[in-house]
């Protein structure tokens, strides 16, 4: 019953992450902690890649559709979005430009120093 | 429980995915088009968001295990991470911090406030993680989801051309910049041009998600 092993591992680590996040009252999402736990388990050899890779890939490949329901929630905030359209879209575009250029130039400078 | 929320989401998403497979253009992004279409359908039909979410919430719930599953691509890329450890760590710390701070302060300067600032701060992070972070720090997850996708679309549409125009030729620098800034949609674009830059971009996306989720909740206390 191979798929159940993979699903059990993924949901097990997810639960463990959520449990840590809520019981220690951490601001970090439980899912991210679960990801770090699973990564640690893979690196430490506790979990073998072939036990989880098919099931994990199914989740990762189909992730896009899961963004739709939370995104549709925007209907509840149309008024807010209208009143704050300039800060929201201005920050979106300017921050995009700054981030991509700063990251690229920082890394490029490091690479040149190395040579 | 009614099945209509799930059915509508899957049908609309499937149709836009078919369109996207044929056109392969940034403006046919199936996630954004599905959100806009379903939101319009609810508005035109007079349905409430709650009635839609009654069943669609199951799809949203699956984001948790999907984020956990991101451990697999990071694990697979461990050799690349080792080979470029210095570039990747500095690129993510610098880029990840600039993404948060510039979004937050520019929105503030332009007159934004409250939940809007919290919602825009994680906009460069992969959608699943950004929604989780936004929820945790008191932002509006729906607004974050839409802003993240728009950021991804920007990167997908003009990122590669912008880097070339700015004279950035180094493949590692290009990959890191795309992944840190525009997550999955940026990665999907640069991988078409350059496999190495694409692999670095995918890793940068996952690691920036982890970096932001660890740093932003504490940083926001200072910024607020």
Automatic annotation (TrEMBL), chain A:
Name of this chain's protein: Effector of murein hydrolase LrgA
Membrane topology listed for this record: Multi-pass membrane protein
GO MF terms, alphabetically ordered: hydrolase activity
Organism superkingdom: Archaea
GO CC entries: plasma membrane
Location(s) in or outside the cell: Cell membrane
Pfam families: LrgA
UniProt keyword list: Cell membrane, Hydrolase, Membrane, Transmembrane, Transmembrane helix
Chief localization: membrane
TrEMBL record, chain B:
This protein's UniProt keywords: Membrane, Transmembrane, Transmembrane helix
Chief location category: membrane
Family annotation (InterPro entries): CidB/LrgB (IPR007300), YohK-like (IPR005261)
Keyword Transmembrane helix: yes
Record-level GO cellular component terms: membrane
Membrane topology, from the record: Multi-pass membrane protein
Record localization: Membrane
Keyword match Transmembrane helix: yes
Bilayer-spanning residue ranges: 31-49, 56-76, 88-107, 140-160, 198-220
Annotated PANTHER family: PLASTIDAL GLYCOLATE_GLYCERATE TRANSLOCATOR 1, CHLOROPLASTIC, PUTATIVE SEROTONIN TRANSPORTER
Protein name: CidB/LrgB family autolysis modulator
Native source species: Thermococcus profundus
């Amino acid at each position: 019953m191979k798929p159940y092993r993979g699903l059990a591992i993924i949901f097990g680590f997810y639960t463990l992450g959520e449990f840590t996040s809520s019981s220690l009252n951490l601001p970090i999402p439980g899912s991210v902690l679960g990801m770090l736990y699973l990564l640690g388990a893979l690196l430490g050899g506790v979990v073998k890649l072939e036990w989880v890779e098919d099931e994990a890939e199914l989740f990762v490949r189909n992730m896009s559709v899961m963004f739709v329901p939370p995104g549709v929630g925007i209907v509840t905030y149309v008024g807010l979005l209208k009143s704050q359209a300039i800060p929201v879209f201005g920050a979106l575009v300017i921050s995009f430009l700054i981030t991509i250029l700063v990251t690229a130039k920082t890394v490029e400078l490091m690479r040149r120093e190395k040579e | 429980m009614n099945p209509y929320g799930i059915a509508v989401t899957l049908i609309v998403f499937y149709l836009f995915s078919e369109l996207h497979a044929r056109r392969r253009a940034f403006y046919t992004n199936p996630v954004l088009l599905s959100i806009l279409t379903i939101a319009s359908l609810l508005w035109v039909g007079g349905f409430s968001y709650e009635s839609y979410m009654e069943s669609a919430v199951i799809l949203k719930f699956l984001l948790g295990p999907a984020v956990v599953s991101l451990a697999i691509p990071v694990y697979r890329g461990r050799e690349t991470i080792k080979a470029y450890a210095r570039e990747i760590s500095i690129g993510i710390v610098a880029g990840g911090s600039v993404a948060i701070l510039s979004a937050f302060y520019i929105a503030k300067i332009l007159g934004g406030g409250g939940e809007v600032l919290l919602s825009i701060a994680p906009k460069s992070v992969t959608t699943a993680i950004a929604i989780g972070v936004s929820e945790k720090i008191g932002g509006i997850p729906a607004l974050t989801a839409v802003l993240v996708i728009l950021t991804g679309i920007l990167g997908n549409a003009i990122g590669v051309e912008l880097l070339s125009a700015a004279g950035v030729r180094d493949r590692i620098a290009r990959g890191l910049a795309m992944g840190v800034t525009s997550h999955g949609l940026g990665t999907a674009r640069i991988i078409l041009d350059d496999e190495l830059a694409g692999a670095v971009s995918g890793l940068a996306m996952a690691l920036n998600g982890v970096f932001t989720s660890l740093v932003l909740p504490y940083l926001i206390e200072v910024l607020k």
